[in-house]
Amino acid sequence: MRTTPRATLLAAGMSCAAALPMAASAQAQTNGSGNSATIYGFLKADVERVRLSGGSGVQPPGSSINRLSNNLSVLGFRVREDLGGGTSVWAQIETNVRVDTGDGPWGGRNTGIGLKTSAGQIVMGQWETPLRFVSVYAIDPFTAGIFASNSIMGNGFATAPNAVSPTSFDRRAPNLLQYWSPMLNNFEVRLAFEMPEEKTATANPRMFSGLLTYTDGPLYAAWGYEQHRSYFYGGSLDEAHRLGLAYSFGPTRVRGSFERLSYEPAPGRTLNRNAWQIAVTHKLTERHGLMASFVKAHSASGNYDKPLGGIGIPGTDSGAKQISLGYVYNMSKRTDLWAAYTRISNGKTATYNLSANSIPGMAAGQTASGFGLGITHKF
Q1: Comparing C-alpha atoms, which of 374, 368, 321, 345 is closest to residue 64?
Q2: Confidence at residue 33, expressed as pLDDT on a 0 to 100 scale
Q3: pTM score, two decimals?
Q4: In whole angstroms, what is the distance from residue 330 CA to residue 44 CA?
């Protein structure tokens, strides 16, 4: 009996419905001609104790919260059709899954459609901007959650259209048109433009983001650039440059990144901030691994007289430091048990908070810390 792509997708969906309650492996169906439908994802949650200390915020110094937290769990559906001659089309729907509450917006993550040829790929939809890929996955061993470096790097994460959450340079953007190049002499390029659908009578906000990577065995190097126009007012210009570098020495991988953020939050006003991260992962054995990360945000410079996101006021003690430590036990290829700790020490006017699951009531100058015991299962 001939299997159509529609029947293939239906079969994959039925397989997923049966498999997910038992946390089975990813379900993929093919019809023998290069067409496929795949269901994938992971569930990641932990029991955390988080704490604010110092400063004079709404929560008294030393207050703490015990909680169960979701660490950006994912459910995804991906289909591919081979059109012949080296051309194919693919589509992906990726959704956040709130393990702690059961909620999750449909298609709220990387969701789009792509046309792939020998000259590269055209991708349309909501996706993480290329700048984010410089360091989030290749450099940061914690990737997401309260232990991740984007508590500081990028000045906070946002899924938002043009000019919404304007301080964030760690973004997932809707209405994104992208080009992904093929690998050429170990180099790859990604270019992205967020369509200017938020245009008003006084401003035309728009975003461009680019990524250049070089990969050769144990070596990874990348440079990213992102530009936001009219995010704060008509004609404003904000820019980010980010570098990433990683290299493996046997079971040890050393990682590092550097970024410079430049804002124009008001006419004639500027704010600049540099930050960097160093991190290392080490496999003790096939089942046991260690990871560590240190992030430093330097004090801001410029003539702006207000804080911007987590960045404090230029000319003051507006820097921050974050240290994260982790241990992972690989129970199988798909299941991990882990423990991690993080601490963010803010300067007097800085308010960098824990990423993804922040602590409410933080005031400038406070320290945020957290410890978690968790489990991850990939399917």
Answers
A1: 368
A2: 64
A3: 0.88
A4: 14
